[in-house]
Amino acid sequence: MAVLLMAAALLGVGLVVFWMEPLSVLSVIERFTPNIIYRVRTHRPVVALSFDDGPHPTFTLEVLEILRRHDAKATFFLIGERALRHPEVVSQIKAAGHEVGNHYFRNGPTLGHSDADFVDYLEQTEKAIGMFKGPRLFRPPGGLAWPKQLRHARAHGYKCVLGCAYPHDPMHPPVRYITWLIEKNLVPGAIVILHDGISDPTRSIQALPHILAVGRKRGLRFVSLVREAAEHVEAS
Fold it and tell me: Looking at the whole model, is its pTM more than 0.85?
C-alpha cells in the first residue's frame, strides 16, 4: 500500500510539473540534463520565441504576419523534408529577419535511428534549410533523443535547445491555457515553444498576439534565439 501511495504521489507531482511547468523546478531539470538548454542565460529583457514543425505554406505565413505587426523576431525549428517541399516559405522566414534551427529531417522520433542515420538526417536538414555558418541550434522532434545522438549533434557544432514555456499545443489545449502558461513563465531569458507545423495550430496562432502584447507591457523584446541571444546561452 505504501508503495502504491508513493507511486500515486510521484505521478501526481509529475502531472503538475508537466501541465504547470513551474520555473522553480527548472534548476533541478538542468542539473540532470546539463547539455540541454532550457533558457537564455541573460539579464537583458529578452524572450526567445520559437516555432516547431514547419515550414507550413499557410500557418507559417500567418505567424510571420503576426510577428511583423508586433515587431517581434523568432527562431523557426524546421523539418528538413518539409523545407524541401516549401523552400519559398523558408526564404520568407529568413527575409523577414528570423532565424532557422534544425528540427531533424522527419517529423518523428529519432530513438530508433542508428548513429549513421541520425547524422545523415541532421546533415540533410542543414542543406534543406541552408544552415551553413554561424551558431546552429538543434531541437530533437518531440524533445527526445538518446544522449549519444545529442553528442553527435554537439560534435557537428549544434547547441541542443528545448525551452521553459511550452503549452503542449500539439495536444490542442484551450487558448486560455496556452496564454496562461506562457504568460506566467514570461520572464527575461525564457524560451517559448509553439508550433506552426502541426495539423491544426490555430489555437496557438490565436494566442500569439496576446502573448506578444503581454511581453511588450512587461518591457520584454521577443528575439531570435540564434542571432540575438545565442552568445548568452549556456547550459547550467
Answer: yes
